[in-house]
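Tricarballylate dehydrogenase: structure tokens wanted.
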Amino acid sequence: MTRSEDFIVIDVLVIGGGNAALCAALMAREAGASVLMLEASPKEWRGGNSQHTRNLRCMHDAPQDVLVEAYPEEEYWQDLLKVTGGETSEHLARLVIRASSNCRDWMRRHGVRFQPPLSGALHVARTNAFFMGGGKALVNAYYRSAQTLGVRVRYETPVAGIVLDGDRFVGARTESGELITARACVLAAGGFESNREWLREAWGRNDRGEWPADNFLIRGTRFNQGVLLKDMMRAGADMIGDPSQGHCVAIDARAPLYDGGICTRIDCVSLGVVVNRDGERFYDEGEDFWPKRYAIWGRLVAQQPGQIGYSIIDRKVIGRFMPPVFPGITANSLPELATRLGVPVEVFMRTLDSYNAACRPGTFNHTILDDCRTEGVVPAKTHWALPIDTPPFYGYALRPGITFTYLSLKVDDTAAVRFGNKPSSNLFVAGEMMAGNVLGKGYTAGVGMSIGTAFGRIAGTRAAAAALGRPA
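Answer:
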């Protein structure tokens, strides 16, 4: 039975409620299609992970409204190539990059506001446009616009599976057993980052006998269980990506299990040192600017004993990074700090003494890749290497915080779901469910919103064309 509410027949069904889903719904409605969105969460938690975002990475060849200087296509591509280690589709990545240069006017028409460039510790005024009010404001603006345009939204309606006729979409079966049919469909229901059992399966047991995934915190929504991703896998859809890869950030170990969001991120890592629970450093904290490297630190911490690390700084760098929501553990001496953190004092002091002795004089400047570095210590610290010697000292316990997973449905530039390398004529995908085509590993700030916006708009346009029998 089809529940159509105000529609005799639904043209486009959009499954999901975040940025990509909303972009798809708005584009489909603007193209003249009737649209129904199914959001698994209650209304107050709508928006998926998008409610926790802050910005969009944007290509621009000259200063543009809230963006300073220039961030050309080739530099954007090289930044993405570096963080992914080449595990990306250049064709789709460049599609996203180019789309990021011309989407903001459309976003503004749907109520999204951008804030002027801010000085501070993120150093991304050149590359990223920040949403006024953050991701929650963006999501709310899109929902208001959708309501005005006549898009219908049903909350608390999780979908259990997709009904197909070969490679064609027929309908969606809700968890309550209802079948909702439509002429075309966009899947934008997120990854599987909130599914603990799937995370355990993906990460397995390490050589210490631990299940690393058991210590992961989920930065975003609890509703991204990967149900439709798994359903599409069972249906034989083409897949891409490593299930253990994802946007995984080092966050405050005191963060809640779900929905801690951006304020739980620890942004002082590049300005100090990070030790594991044994008191040993394990990676170059000053490898590159924090917005280009913050997303590797969750995975690095996940590989440490007990999946925990400790970011250590002193008074000299206070005020040079975005403060987290929880204050750090403080002490007037390094041995006292080690004791308060529960780290072996002797090893901790040997690590800090070796690091301090290895710091070479330079001109410290946290806004550039400066010449403050270490010599003769492993791992090296390439930039911003200052001795940690000025009390009070601060320590922040770190845990891996999963934002979203990269196992994805394989697509081309039409956003169509593919079966045996054949694109479906009426089933499309956007957002986290296909982001692994561009992000095989790694991350750089704002690119997830770029992917979701680009492919949400493509998927919505294509779905409307398929539903209405028009050329795409």
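The first strand starts at residue 12 and ends at 15. The chain has two domains: 12-191+408-468, 249-401.

Cheers.
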